[in-house]
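Sequence in, structure out. First:
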Amino acid sequence: MQNVLYRLLAPTVISVIAFFGVYFWQSQAALELENPQVITGWALAVVILFLLIFNVRKRLSAFNLGLAKIWFALHVAFGFLAIAFFAIHAGVFWPEGLYEQLLAAGFWLVSLTGIVGVLITIYFPKRLTNTGLEIVYEKIPEEIFSLREAVEGILVNCANECGETTLQEQYTQILAWYFRRPRFYWSYIIGSNADRAWLARHLDSVRRYLNADEMSYLDEIKKLAERKSLVDEHFARQDVMKKWLLVHLPVSILVLAMSVWHIILVYAYAI
């Protein structure tokens, strides 16, 4: 977290200087009976355009266009600068007029998803590193299938060596649900321990019906269940990290297009 704050320091200073520079400029324009919204409007348009360039930079990662962490810091700082420019340009949180309201709704949605994205980008990778597990998102279904196969193999060995099917029956009734696919999606997103509580409760309920020989097989299943818990955490967090952009980026492009049309209308009416 300290490294992130340190990288944000210089872009934040630049943003603050830019904000007060534009604020002073538009204040002087108002004193001279000029339209200050022209200044704040163009400043906002330039910042929005710069923010969209960040996505272009990610698509051109093969070229040496600077460190990604520097671009990320600039994107965060200029994102908050855009919010500040929008506030002084609009003058109100919710403007009048249908088109202006649609534009404001799009802008606030982009801002909200952007802030959520920053928190995700900072917080989720660290949590995934702390799991001690490395797995590619696309390989997660294959990993869950392998874990389920391993559990079923343990059940077969238990039945053959112990001559009992109690563990198999309890697995079918209780634990099979857990190994079928990723579970506790929202629990991992908000950082609760619902998965651990569920596993502890249901493993204990299964344990009551087993004899001493079957206990060792249940312990093996428990280890696989704990690994699946880590896999499920990777699935939930990586899924959000991939999909939040499906909202943020399209709405950002829409807001830019609406802003261009807004500028055209303003100058058309001015003429």
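Second:
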Amino acid sequence: MCFPVKNGKFLMMINSHMSSYDKGGKMRKAQMKLISSVMEHEYRAGNYVIVGGDFNHALGKDMMTHFEHQEKIPSWVSVLDQGMLPKDFTMVKATNREKSIHSTGDRHEV
């Protein structure tokens, strides 16, 4: 989605849903290359870029052990780290990842 900004630039919002069950990670690498090229192109054009969605990656190595669990992490889980992003881009992690949202009908509790 593309939204005009008062300064004549655009806010580019990209929603991603990357592959998950990708033996060897070839598809995810290709997807990261594609989305990175779009991000860089828009940024170099002077636009603002936000990418969100389901990356089907653990967002940083710390997320592999962040939540207590007894299950083995599947071999297809990949880690998305800062080094995989284009220059001048930063991965922003939620500040409320210690909390979970519970939905009870039409009420949501954090």
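Remark: The longest helix spans residues 26-44.
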